[in-house]
Design a protein that fits this description.
globular; 250 residues; 80% helix; 11 helices; mainly alpha
Length: 250
């Protein structure tokens, strides 16, 4: 596997994103508008905790929420490449499928992390403050980076199942919806608590919430959640790559 080729492809993919208005909107304006709407809608709403707004309570879930939507972007991208015959043409070039897949994984993970940065900056500009310090924010970014990798893997699995970009959009919500609600904003209880044990976004939201609420970074629960998210992400990205390489060209 040639690292220089992968980096060149990553650069090309990022340039392609910038040149496509629809993708650029989804990448930049969507997380920005989402943060603004949540901030304007919930900043003045009481949460039941003294001097803490509902927006402050929802911010950790908002961070996880943004990472999840890369599933749809990845699924659409790979489905379009397959529909245009690009994936078949790769077999006639010196470029290996591993290099092609690796470049997409890296570029889409970077896009997802950029979206998180936009949300973090805007939430701070809108008055959100946390008690985790710089170290806590750094650990929170590690949580979100793993969730981004996991979402890329789920996007690959979606692209494997879907036959067209349109179908990829619909199928992606099978992975997005449970994580979007049960893994971010709804406090799990009973049956939903059992379901949330299988959702990586739930571990991310819980971990970031603990950090931002001032839990010491030496708290083992935080690290258990981080390791759990990391393991889930590694497994899902490997499964996604293997499934797409095996069945994605069909």
């Amino acid at each position: 596997m040639n690292v220089q080729k992968i980096l060149a492809l990553v650069k090309m993919e990022l340039k392609k994103v910038i040149r496509e208005p629809a993708v650029l909107f989804l990448m930049v304006l969507f997380p920005a508008m989402l943060t603004l709407f949540f901030g304007l809608g919930f900043a003045e709403m009481e949460s039941g905790i003294p001097e803490v707004s509902q927006f402050d309570v929802m911010v950790p879930g908002l961070y996880a929420f943004v990472c999840i939507f890369i599933i749809m972007t990845v699924a659409q991208s790979f489905s379009e490449d397959r529909e245009k015959g690009l994936l078949r043409r790769i077999n006639t070039t010196p470029l290996t499928s591993g290099e092609f897949m690796g470049s997409h994984v890296i570029s889409n993970t970077l896009i997802s992390v950029l979206q998180v940065v936009i949300v973090v900056v805007l939430s701070f500009l809108m008055g959100y403050r946390h008690s985790g310090g710089v170290g806590g924010l750094a650990i929170a970014f590690i949580f979100m980076s793993f969730l981004s990798v996991c979402s890329v893997g789920l996007g690959l699995i979606t692209a494997t199942i879907a036959k067209t970009p349109g179908a990829a959009t619909g199928i992606s919500f099978i992975f997005i919806m449970p994580q979007m609600f049960l893994g971010t904003y709804i406090i799990p209880a009973g049956t939903t608590q059992i379901i949330s044990m299988f959702l990586p976004s739930a571990y991310v939201t819980d971990g970031i919430t603990m950090i931002f609420n001032g839990a010491p970074l030496t708290n083992p629960v935080i690290w258990i959640k981080l390791v759990t998210v990391a393991l889930i992400s590694v497994v899902i990205i490997i499964v996604g790559i293997l499934l797409f390489k095996r069945y994605g060209n069909r």
